[in-house]
Amino acid sequence: MSSARADKLKTLLDAWEPNSVATNPWLKRLGISSQDLQNYTTSRWLVSLGKGAFKRPMETVTWQGALHSLQTQLNLPVHVGALTALEMTGNRHYVRFAPGKAYLFSPLNVVLPLWFRNNWADQVRHVQTKLLPPDLGVTQLDTPQGFALKAASVERSALELLHLAPKEFDLVEASMLIESMTSIRPALMQELLEQCASIKVRRLFLYLAERANLPVVRHLDLARIDLGAGDRSLVPNGRYVAKYQLTLPRELVGHG
């Protein structure tokens, strides 16, 4: 290997976070050419993960490391959300009874690269939605692997969770998670509820928060939250909540 090519490789390896993916746009910004990539892969300094993506040999890249590259190298507006974001806070209340896929959220028009889908499709569930503005209530959380990932706050995660209920999350389980959210920030939740695109989610959160007597309820301005019109039946053979025009599991509704 020539001295110039060796220097390029050293620059690459110094800048490359362990256990993450190197993408073509990022490599080009480092001055790595297509010829360099061919030489590096032939020499087994790099291993291809598919078109436009590489990993170091002998490293195992998790979905967290791959997502970190999507966020920092490709600047894709995709974040960890719903129950997965809640679990990342380290609060045991948010650990689900049965493990499942990691939930990633993005706007409707965001498509994850083919190399990501081919390698981690069985581990993640990508939810494309216009439920909330892309950056509202999104923060950074650290993973056990050492990556700082963009992830939904507790407040946003609660609404994302309810967006997926009851099809992907049991409503009774969701209610138990909401009950534990005693530190919800009223100002952020107010803004999220006002800008939430789902009438079902707005009504459901308010009902479950009232049912759990969460402190946030006393600080919300309900007059500014549009609850729409008409009934919403979320389960068959449930019980009707007149205030919020919701039909919910009988376990969640009193007999009054």
TrEMBL record:
Q: What is this protein called?
A: Type IV toxin-antitoxin system AbiEi family antitoxin
Per the UniProt record, the source organism is Sphingomonas tagetis
**One Pfam family, short name:** AbiEi_3_N
Question: InterPro entries per the record?
Answer: AbiEi_3, AbiEi_3_N
Q: Which domain of life is it from?
A: Bacteria
Where does the Transcriptional regulator AbiEi antitoxin N-terminal domain lie? 6-97
